[in-house]
Amino acid sequence: xxxARPDSPLDLAIxxxxxxxxxxAITCGEARPGSRITIFERTSRPLGKVKISGGGxxxxxxxxxxxxxxVTYYPRGxxxxxxxxxxxxxxxxxxxxxxxxxxxxVEPDNRVFPVTDRSQTVIDCLESAxxxxxxxxxxxxxxARAEPSKDGFHLDLDTGEGISTRRxxxxxxxxxxPSGATIAGGFGHRVEPAAPSLFTFRIDDxxxxxxxxxxxxxxxxxxxxxxxxxxxxxxxxxxNALVTTGPVLVxxxxxxxxxxxxxxxxGARELAAVDYRFTIEVDWTGGAGPESxxxxxTMLREAHPRKGIGNDPQxxxxxxxxxxxxxxxxxxxxxxxxxxxxxxxxxxxxRFAGELTAGRFAVDGKSMNKDEFVTCGGVALRxxxxxxxxxxxxxxxxxxxEVLDIDGITGGFNFQSAWTTGHIAGGAVADxx
Length: 433
Hints:
433 residues; alpha+beta; seven-stranded antiparallel β-sheet; 21 strands; elongated
């Protein structure tokens, strides 16, 4: 199949061969059989992020079926996604893949994976559906420049070719790749600057040394006095913007886990502004509060009069971390002089309660969350019509996926926004043909 006949442009050109681009192409091709659709992917392997996601298993979506609950997992884009998720959400996504032979499973944390635990299963499904829909995929080629024309758009490819298309969809992924931002900016769109959205905190602190792999199921985290980004993100209040509760994992370089990643996502711009050097306050009790902790100490004085404090961890805190916190509060955690509950003075009890509920750690950098690089930033959402995923500035220009200033936390949410925006964009193009 050729890109276009000499006298006829493409019906739809898609810049970017990721999840959103493929889903849009398939949706359009299935709705309008015979339409001329080509995906231009700059790498040699389309769907590269699908391949590595979920540790190679592909976290397809998240089993959260109420749109108003679902959008609470998106630091940016929550308000705009409520309507689209009513039209195409996790239930529709799961049904779409299962009808095409991809058996899915919902894990205890509601993440959804293929039963095979292989991302290639999802890739094979998308590639097969694209072929059946008549979509052409061109790899190792990208859209270098785009401009309006009498037929719709003229595209200059980095191969030196010129292509005409009636409709153009930009689905190039996060704007750390400059192509999508360049295309959108060339049409006059505001592009919010890119910044990492999911990352772990680099911390060098004796309390954590040698504890890599240890986890606390429920900890409350608060970033101390982050600067305001000034962007007024509508889906969260400034009062509690950088406070969250969740599992925390100690790593060789600091702290990670869902709780840390959630803070990193909501504070992406604020934390980038201080070059990832700030202080976090950790409540290892998960929100018990200092007064409740002191009451627990009083009870333990009577219940465990012979027990050493260091050998009697509370609040679900692992023993090795508990001992570090005992020591950090100035109490001997072991040996002949180990502190026992009845000997815990009022001042020592308050110091220890403070260490448990408001321990402060200096963060001096970030590390990426495995291979799952997610950024905030992208095309300003107010300039996009989410009924059609179409530019409010340039008719016929559409956006889908992470090229928009939308990002979700880890757990299948970024893929779901890609499937949703891709489906809506592809359907809107099909309706226009």
